[in-house]
Amino acid sequence: MKRSIEIVGLPVLSIIKGREVGTVKELLIDPNQGEVAFLLLGLENWYSPPGVLPFKDVSGVGEYALTIEYDNSITPLGEIPEAAQLLANQVKVIGTKVITRKGKYIGKVTEIIIDDANGKISGCVIEPKDDPGASPIIPDTSIITFGQEVLVINEEAATGSSLEAPPAAPPATPVVGTPVPTAPAPVPPAPATNGVNGMKLFEERQRQSVIGKKLVRTILDDQGQVIAAEGETVTEELLERIEKLGKFVELSMGVER
Questions:
Q1: How crowded is residue 161: how many other Cβ atoms within 10 Å of its Cβ?
Q2: Given the DSSP bridges, would you call strands 97-100 and 150-153 parallel, antiparallel or unpaired?
Q3: What pairs with residue 66 in β-bridges?
């Protein structure tokens, strides 16, 4: 079992090639299946568009790296409509409110526990509204709906006396409530996007994340002239200039982390 924080940021290594081929940037969650369906990757070449790796093609998730057999398991984001739609749906789980089927507010999700063998979300760590210092786990068997804004759980899981703080490592068995198996309710998809442009969605998120950061490499235009120098802080004005020159991806991969 792994927490999302233990996966995001890991280098991706090809076992066959014996080298790093990318870095995990984001988890794309399928709420209807209750699983991480794809991993959004920053690729080894900073000028490449983001790549998508199906979780089923992951060989292993370790402390140092996430491994795959072949790098041809990675596909450009724009070529997988399903992944682009999941990116558009923006079901993050972390940060969502936790309510019961009857509408009782329990708290908010602070982390998710992922079965690294298949990508299934086995539980959600929550911060109870009545005990902010605690961090109990809601098992997947008690979760009814993974939504864009709320996580809906059954009433048994919300029993105050059953909430227990988990040990340091995520437990193999649920620790909250008496689970009542309930199939996750389908989550309505995001409004139709007429063929969502996954690259644009990725760039918009990246756009907001780079402003105010410093460049760790110099950005050149197609004629070899300096657009922005290493050490320069990214401003709205600089960002707009770089976007007009088609150098946004290069910029997004060249700022401090």
A1: 6
A2: parallel
A3: 12, 61
Exposure class string for 240-249: b at 16+ Cβ within 10 A, else e = eebeebebbb
Mean pLDDT in consecutive groups of 10 residues from the start of the chain, 257 residues: 94 92 94 95 73 95 93 89 90 94 94 96 93 89 93 82 45 45 49 49 64 84 83 87 77 70
Whole-model pTM above 0.70? no
- Show the tokens assigned to 10: 């890991």
Cβ proximity of 243 and 211 under 8 Å: no
Give the Cβ contact number of residue 235 at 10 Å.
Answer: 12
Residue-range domains of the chain with CATH? 2-80 (2.30.30.240), 92-186 (2.30.30.240), 211-252 (no CATH)
* Half-sphere exposure of residue 92: CA atoms within 13 angstroms, side-chain side: 12
Number of H helices, E strands in the chain: 4, 16
